[in-house]
């Protein structure tokens, strides 16, 4: 069955017997298909198709308002876009039978906008007087008005009220209504009964992702000349990375393809060969999928219908990073939403301009099989030296650990000794700078399995793995210090429920200084903010961290007790603060589990 042709047949037929339901599993392309059909029909003026999401609409009135707004948008066209043109629209629309337009027209005694208490023409609700019909326009320009309601299963209305409201458009206004939903997600007992009264035909859509991806590429509207052709040349690679993601998320794929156009444009500005650009596209899409956590688990029917699923034994993202196609500029963009074109071009030159590649860079960035002996003899000692000094990022350290292990497994002689204890010391020094904000540690999406590193390196690798949680806690720490110093964007208290690694000596010092000089109102807020922070999560804090927090809480208690003065409110705040600190969970046990 050609789903597209079936939908067009429903739209174009003369006889209307009820609504059309397009159903299928989440991610199979239902919404994408109807929006593409709507776009084509609206552009060609063959029909006026309004697509309305029911997600979040919690009343029949809200649905009717959206329908009326959409209808008015078609009726007014571009006149409904700006306030400047809307005043003219009142008089223009009157020619189509809208008598209310004369109310706001100039020169009508007793009916002017001013006489009705309206300060301007924009205060008048023209849409409130538009009658929604099953056609738009007149004569040769007349076309059918079609309603598409998406996300039926996500509406907050009861299915009885919702389907009853939609039935009004079919039965009373003779408007063709297309409903898009995943019936498997509808649990209402009323749904089946009222569905039979409203829906005359149901089309079930299977997940033919290959065809959908072909269509996404075919209709892609490029900004950079040649990008669409590039996508067409690599559509099989695009299908592969989508298949390997097992996410069934076409939105993420479309976002990846659209975003990568900026990469394509930047690459084209350089003189660097584009032979590896396809691998960069694959890696970028893979990292986009990795960054997204699926919110809906696909049902078994969808999995059986998909022609693109991997066999269980196949490896995920087999080409990720191929030909040095992993870029920190990608990670930074995906993680923080910041596209750094200059950084990307710099990385391009570093990766693909061989003359500029040092043995150190080749050791840290190239695959083992791309190395020469001189890279090992010169680059490996330099890399290890930088690890001892805390100059290597987590990603570089993981690459280094796996290379050392593989070289040893291959019995390749190492040009220097390896001391993992010194590497740990170097990383601890680096972490101090990361915590203080003087070192910008890039995100790390690189991991190693236990059998990919030396056994004696595994405690060090565990330390690297734990840094994700530590960095999150350190960012919270910096925000707390900014808040205490009055440098936060918000004047409200530090958001409760955040995790800090520990209440360290610097935090104690800054807190006491700010608290001592603060107004009573700020004292109260500082106290509540500190008490609302969690210092006891084993995910973020070690027992050593917790012991530091307990020790500095004791010091803070002693300091608060020593604070005297004549301000009764200050003394009352201090008293309550002391009591709550003494009752704090951190103070109740020396070994909280």
Describe this structure in words.
The protein has 593 residues and is mainly alpha-helical. The protein has three domains: 3-204, 3-Layer(aba) Sandwich (Rossmann fold), CATH 3.40.50; 214-465, no CATH class; 470-587. The chain has 25 helices and six strands. The chain has helices spanning 3-12, 30-44, 60-76, 83-94, 101-104, 159-171, 191-198, 209-218, 227-233, 235-245, 250-268, 277-291, 300-305, 328-336, 341-352, 359-365, 373-388, 394-409, 420-436, 458-465, 467-484, 505-517, 520-531, 543-562, 568-582; strands spanning 19-23, 48-53, 135-136, 143-150, 176-181, 199-204. Strands 1, 2, 3, 4, 5 and 6 form a six-stranded mixed sheet that branches. Helix 11 packs across helix 15 and helix 12 runs parallel beside helix 14 (328-336). The longest helix has 20 residues, at 543-562. The radius of gyration is 32 Å and the shape is flat. The two termini are 60 Å apart.
Salient structural properties:
593 residues; Rossmann fold; flat; 6-stranded mixed beta sheet; mainly alpha; 3 domains; single chain
Question: What class would the helix/strand composition place it in?
Answer: mainly alpha
Shape: flat
Helix content bin: 40-55%
Largest β-sheet summary = 6 strands, mixed
Are there runs of 5+ residues with pLDDT below 50, and where? 78-84, 86-91, 93-124, 294-314
Gyration radius (Cα, Å) is 32 Å
Estimate the strand proportion.
5-15%
Number of domains: 3
Number of helices: 25
What gap, in angstroms, lies between the N and C termini?
A: 60 Å
The average pLDDT value, as a whole number, equals 83
Count of DSSP strands: 6
